[in-house]
Amino acid sequence: MSTALSRIPAYHRYAGKALPGQPGDSCHLLAWHSLDVAAVGWQLLAPERPLTRQLAAQLGIEPEALRRLLVFLLGLHDLGKFSRAFQEVLKLSLGGMAAPQGKPYCQRHDRLGVLLWDACWSTWRREGVLHWPEDAEVSARKLLIPMNSLMAPFFGHHGQPVATGQLTLADFFVDDGELDDTAAARDFVADWAALIEPHWPLDRLVDKQCLARFKTLSWTVAGWATLSDWLGSHRDYFPYCQRAMPLADYWPRALSQAEAVLDATGFGRPPEPIAYAGLAHWFAGTVTPTPLQQKAESLPLQAGPQLFILEDVTGAGKTEAACILAQRLLADGHGEGLYFALPTMATSNAMYTRLGDLHHRFYSSASRPSLVLAHGARELNEAFERAVMAAQPENDNYTAREVSASTQCNRWLADSNKKALLADVGVGTIDQALMGALPFRHQSLRLLGLARKVLIIDEVHAFDHYMQTLLHQLLAHHARQGGSAILLTATLPHAMRQALTAAWCHGLEAEASPLEAHDYPLLTHCGKGEVNEYPVETRPAVERSVAIEWLEREDEAIERVLAAVKADECVVWVRNTVDDAIRAFQQLRERHPEPVRCLLFHARFAMVDRQRIESEVIRRFGKTSTLELRRGQVIVTTQVFQESLDCDADQMVSDIAPIDLLIQRAGRLQRHQRGERPDPVLQILAPTWSDTPGADWLSQAHRGTQAVYQDTSLIWLTQRVLRERGAIIMPGEARTLIESVYAFPVDDIPEALDQARFERTGMDRLAVSMATHNALDLEAGYQLNGDFDPWQEEREFGTRLSDERSVEVVLLKRQGDALVLWADDHRHADRLSRCRLRESQVKKLAALPGHYAEQWEALQQRHRGLRFVHPWLPEEDAKFSYDEQWGVSFGNENPR
C-alpha cells in the first residue's frame, strides 16, 4: 500500500454511489452518503420539532439524547456497502478504491448490513467503538433482543424489514491482506461515534415497557429513516464527492445541504397552526353554524390523542364540523397536519376541489402548507395537475425564489402516493391510509405521514368487515403514535360505533366504556380519560320524510320512470347490478320521447368515458342544474351514484338494498331546494312481501340483487321495517331503522332465510380472519419475527376484499391498420383507456388476435403500465361489446 493511501482512513476507499464516466466526480464516498442521510435525519429530529418531542416523551428520553442516538444509528444504515461484493457491482476503476475480489453480489446491501452488525456489534461494544458508557454493566445477552429491535428500522430503510437468515460473513466481506472490509466498517463506526457522541440509554433499552413502546414507535422511526435516505440521496443537493477528508470537516457541509433539501421539499419548517376564529374567518359573509358545527366549536378537548365520531344527516355540515375540530386540535398541539380519507376516488376528487384553499385558514399567513391528492388515478385530476405544476397558493405575493421552492415541494410530494401522505394536508382514498397497516413496500412512510396528523375518515359506515378490521388496526396504531382521528357517518350501527371506540381505547391501553346513547344526531368523543356522548339538535332545513312506495315488477318501474318524464321531472333509477342497469336503460331509451335525455352510469366504462358521463350527470342533476336542463332527464345507474356525486332528483326508483344504502340513496332525492315539488317518494322495486318467505324469496325475481346482497335476511328485515314505518324519517327514526336491521334478534329471522344468514355470517368471519392475517402486527415492531415474512412477494393482499378478484383491462381499437388505445387522442391515454372487471368476466373476453402481438408489444414499450393489464379489442370479440354509451356489455344481446 502506498504511503498516501496508508494515511487515508480505509473506509474512504469504499463508494456509496457511483456513475462511472460522468463529468466531475464519478462516485460518492460511502462515508459521505452515510453522513448526508444522517444530516437530513438530524434536521428532521431537531429537539423543538413535534415528532422529536412525541418520540422522546413516549420513550422517557431527553429529545437531544434521543436525537444523537437515532442519528448515529441512521448513519449506519448502509453498513452493508462495506462488503466487497457490493463494491464490485459499482464497477469503479478508480485508483485506491476497494479492489474487486470476485465475490458475487447475491444479497441486498441492507441484508448484508444486518449480517455485519449482528456479527460485530458486541465486539465493537467491548472495544469502545460504539462510544459506550464506561460504567455500563448490562450484559450483551440482555441487550440482544433490544438491539435487534433498535437497529431494524435502519437496516430496513428500503421499505421492509430484513434479516440475515443463514448468511455467512466471509462470503461477502473480504480481508485480502491490503484491505479488510470489516475493519474499515469498524473504523467508520468509531469515527462517526466520536463525532456524533451517541447517548445509549441502557436502562431504557432493557426496560420491557420502554421496549414495547419503542416497538410500536419503530414504524415511525423506519419511515423517518427511509425519508432521510431518499432526501439524502438527492444529487441536486448532495453532489458526488470522492475526496477524502475528516468526518468532522464534511459534517457541516452535509448539514447545510440537508437544510437546503428540506426547504425545497417542504420539510424545512412545519406550518404554524393558528386558533380557530369562527366560520366567518373561513367564508366571506355571515355564516350561521349548524348545531353539529356549534358542538364542534364548543366541546372541551381532552389531553392526548382523541377520537371523534360525528353522526348526522346529509346536509348537516359534517365536513365543516370536522374541519373545526381539526383546526382546534392543531392549534392545541395535537397534530401538524391533516389527512382526509374518502371511500372512492370520485369522492376524493370532490373533497380536493371542495377544500380549495380552506386549508390555508388553519395556519399562519407565513406558512405555506402543501396540499396533495392521493389515489391511484390522481394524475387524471386536472385541478391536481395544475396545483402540482404551480405554486400554492396562487393568490399570495411570494418572491420568485419562494414560488420556485413551493412548486418544487409540491412536485416532490406528488411524485408518488407513498410520499403524498407526507404532505401537510392530504386528500385521498381510505386505501392510501390502510396500506400503512399492510405489508406494502414503504408502508412505514405512510405511517410516518399519518403519525402527527389529524386523520379524518368519511363514510365509515360503508366499510365491510374486512375494511373495518384493518381500520381498527390503523386507529389503534394511530392512537399509540399520538395522533387524533375524526370519523364521519350518516348512519352507523351501535355495534360498529362501539367497536371503533374499543379499537381506539386499545391503542391507548385504556378500558373501553360501553356506549349508552341512542340519540341521533350524535357526537362521540373518546380519549384516554373518558368517553362522552353528545346528542345534537337538527336544523329544520335537513329534517325530512321520504315516503315509501313498493313496486314488484320491472315493467312497473319502467312505467313510473316514464310517468315522471311525462311530468317534466328528472328521475334516477338505482339498480344493484350493471347488467340490470343496461337492460333497463335500453328499454327506457327506446320509449323516451327525447332519448338524448337518457344516461347510463356505472363502473364498467373505460375511464375516459366514465369521466365524461360523470361530468354530464353533474351537469344535468347537480346543484347548479337548471329546471329546463333537468326536464325529463333520466339516469339509470348503480351504486356509483350514491357513493360519489352531489346530485339530486325529483323522483327516484331503487332496487331493494340494505337499509343504510336506501337511506343514502334517499339522501339524493330532492337533496337541494328548488321551489315547489311534490313530496319526495322513494319507489322501491322489491319482491312480493311475505311474512314467511321461502329460501328463494329474493332470487326468484331479483337474481341480480341476490348475487350482490347474499344475506337475504338483511333485505327481508329492511323491507319489513320500511313497510311498518311507511317512510324514511330523518333524523327522528334513523336509529330505529338501522338497529331494526343490524341489531335484530335472531328469532326475528324466518327459518327459510337462516341458511343465507349463516353463510353471510361465515363470510364475515372469514373476512375478519383474512384481514387479521394480512395486517401487520404493528405492536410487534418493525422487524421480522421468526420464519414468517409478511412481505413475501407471492402473498396476495389488498385494502379491500371482494368475493372475486378484479382485473384491470385496457380497451384497444383499430385505426386503419394500427392498433391504438381507446383514448388514443387524450393525455394519459393509457390510464383513460382502462376499466376494471371481475376475473370471471375477463376470462370470457376474446383474446387479442396473434397478428397484433407486435403492435401490442410496441404499445407496452411506450406505456410501461400496460404490462400489468389485460388487453381487449372489442371489434374482434364476437360475443361481447363495448360502447361509449353502454360500457362493457355481457348480456345475451348486443345493446347496439
Automatic annotation (TrEMBL):
Residues 23-231 form the HD Cas3-type domain. The keyword tRNA-binding does not apply. Keywords: Antiviral defense, ATP-binding, Helicase, Hydrolase, Metal-binding, Nuclease, Nucleotide-binding. The keyword Hydrolase applies. InterPro entries: Cas3-like_dom, CRISPR-assoc_Cas3_HD, CRISPR-assoc_Cas3_HD_sf, DEAD/DEAH_box_helicase_dom, DEAD_box_RNA_helicases, Helicase_ATP-bd, Helicase_Cas3_CRISPR-ass_core, P-loop_NTPase. It comes from the Bacteria. Pfam families: Cas3-like_C_2, Cas3_HD, DEAD. Coiled coil: none annotated. PANTHER family: CRISPR-ASSOCIATED ENDONUCLEASE_HELICASE CAS3, DEAD-BOX ATP-DEPENDENT RNA HELICASE 47, MITOCHONDRIAL. In the N-terminal section; belongs to the CRISPR-associated nuclease Cas3-HD family. This is CRISPR-associated helicase Cas3. It comes from Vreelandella janggokensis. The gene is cas3.
